Amino acid sequence: MSDLLQLLFSGLAQGSIYGLVAIGFVAVFSVREIVNLAQGEYSALAGLSAISAVAAGVPLLLAILLVVPLVIGVSVIIERVCIEPVRRMTPLVSIILTLGVSTALKAAMLLIWGPQARGLPPFPGRDLVVAGISVRSQELWIIGIAVLVAVVVIWAYEHTLLGKAMRACAEQPVAARLVGISPRMATMIAFGIAGLVGAVAGVIGSPIYFSSWDYGLGLGLKGFVAATLGGLISLRVALFGGVVLGILENLVAGYIDSGYRDAVAFLVLLLVLLIRPQGLMLKASGARV
Description:
Layout: H1 2-32, H2 39-55, H3 60-83, H4 91-113, E1 128-130, E2 133-135, H5 137-159, H6 161-171, H7 173-178, H8 183-209, H9 215-228, H10 235-255, H11 263-275
Antiparallel strand pairs: 1-2
């Protein structure tokens, strides 16, 4: 029983990272139906940048506070340079464009930081043993920060005037323009949110899962799979999907074989596409994965 609880808790921490990345996918797709395959690279870039800042003598907290806005800026620049000039953007075109951006970011990170994986120092705290379960303080930080950021983003999207404007651009772009809401500005803000959640995922996960130039590839894939559970339009289901995926991976690794861990994401994606391509929503939507 203790082994099961241990796997569930570890999966919850890892799934929280996936959930944040999934929120980034949904934030962009729900506004302009853009599949941003560079989402995972934001996490790798944030982790590696923070590691360099700490190595240069910058305190950990200050390094994080500097790196997160940096990655948000990179995400917004990508939108301005690569996405905004394209007049007829389709999901397929967005996949091609952002795949190129992702490749360029990975190449740049490889040149700057090299192939070696590294991690940030653990956040302050003591590891605990509760009912036979080893609880690492960093996992508590991951779960707490991920939940806090996710709740703030979801609340802002659902209850603030800016969030309602972004939803209007997604649901009725013509009507949004008529009342003075700019779809271009909404897209830029969505990319900013994607950069925020990606950067947070990268820095809080780095002490345990490490950061490397190719870290974003697998993380982006699993975040995308989690996002498809909500049809790429539900922030809440995307977060839930990330947690479920993280738990499933740990259960498979613990009870079957660790070599099958990464296959879980592909299996989940296949099942979603075959059984319910609109995602786990109560009602089918016009969006399709």
